[in-house]
Amino acid sequence: MTNLMYCNEDTLVTRNQLAAIPTPNGRGAFHQPVGYGDYLELILHRLDRAGLAVINEEYATANEGGRFFGTMELGLKDGGNMIQGDAMTITLGVRGSHDQSVPRGICLGNRVIVCSNLCFNGDLANVSTKQTTNVWDRLPGLVDQAVDRIPALAQREERRMHAYQEHTFNSPRHGDAVLVELHRQGALPGPQLTRAISEWDAPTYEEHSEFGDSAWKLINAVTESQKPTGTQVNMDLVRQRTATAGAFIDSVVGIDF
Question: Which residues, 6 or more positions from 204, have their beta carbon under 8 angstroms from its beta carbon?
Fold first, then answer.
């Protein structure tokens, strides 16, 4: 689940437009703002050094440029996706601010939520640091901490994807039973359960049905139903529901990393 969520008052920008936003002076002895462009260049340099590239990206600013947030879909430098398939794409979320509203942060996952209402989470990794004195001494290590984990995470998620694609339910009703159990476990409240059943019966995207009534089709149905809506999102609840759903479907498929 990859989402860049923004409000009407936010502004979608390109990478170059983001880099052109002036970096203000610090708001005190312990506040050391870092230019948005400099921050992105550091991340892109570390990705390139690791053999990775950004194949899709989207950025937005809020509070008149006081903070920014974005998502980067990652692939190999030769142009290929690390993992084929919407539910298993590795995405990097990034955010920062000049107004001290959020720290510099990076999140990683195949289910990433980045939003101007301060929701920021990846299901595989989350790192951050405040923009205080010597922030530039900490940022390279912060970025490396995230980037160094990507190849292993990608391999793990690729194994998971193939396991989901190869696990076929004996009948559509067996998939229904999994969705109902996820409802019992709190991962799919009523409205989301209804949406998940609809997606299981008739997926919005044809590629989700490519492997028949499989766990791949099921996880995509759950993913579509769990996408947050509105501006008041309870991030802890989203994390909990996502983790519960993933763990249970892993157990159904027989995955044990």
Answer: 224
Rounded to two decimals, the pTM is 0.73
CB contact at 8 A, 42 and 140: yes
Q: Answer yes or no: is 157 within a domain.
A: no
| pLDDT of the chain, 257 residues: tens digit per residue | 445 766 777 889 999 999 999 988 766 666 677 899 999 999 999 999 888 888 889 999 988 889 999 999 888 777 666 665 555 678 899 998 888 888 888 888 877 778 766 677 776 778 888 767 777 788 888 888 888 888 888 888 888 889 999 999 999 999 999 999 999 999 999 999 999 999 999 999 998 999 999 999 999 999 889 876 665 667 678 778 888 999 999 999 998 76
Same domain, 92 and 189: no
Indicate the number of domains in the chain: 2
